[in-house]
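I can't quite decide. Please look over this sequence plus structure tokens:

:::
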Amino acid sequence: MAELYPNIYQRGRKTTLLTQEEAAERLHISPETLKRYEGGRLTPPDETVARMCEVYGVRWLALEHAKATDRLGILPEVEPKPLPMATISLTNRLRDAADRLAGLLRIAEDGVIDDAERPEFDSIVQELRETIAAAYQVIYADGAKKERPDGGTSKRSVSQAVKPENDCKNSISYSRGNASPVLKKGVYAR
């Protein structure tokens, strides 16, 4: 059953296809210690989890570890989402927060939250928590880039470098009735 439901540290390692021994060596810990982390008998310190994230190349492990060790319940619930959905959600939350800023300033003006202001303040705080969760969704989204590729190594850069005819005259045409240049059929420049 443990194999069907590995813990977060084991899931992180398995994404790299490293054995426990190989991972332990790269993490500068003993294989027995790693087995205890993965078996749920010991919780790794934050510094070890930071090394796991780096060695395994899995940023989500930091958030999962923080949630698993958050005894005070400070972190919001974060539901993983694909990057486009997470970005839209965060954008909507930020717009809502901007709309509520005037109310927060009014409440904070005298430095006291009275009984009449409490419901509005609590509502604003809840929206802020949802905004923080949305930010985490973007940071740890499926499909988020880990690192920027080296210059000239992306598929687009390589494909453009091979085509000598790739210049402004040949790559941008203008459609009728539309002021935006058409880069490819149905794709417009911003």
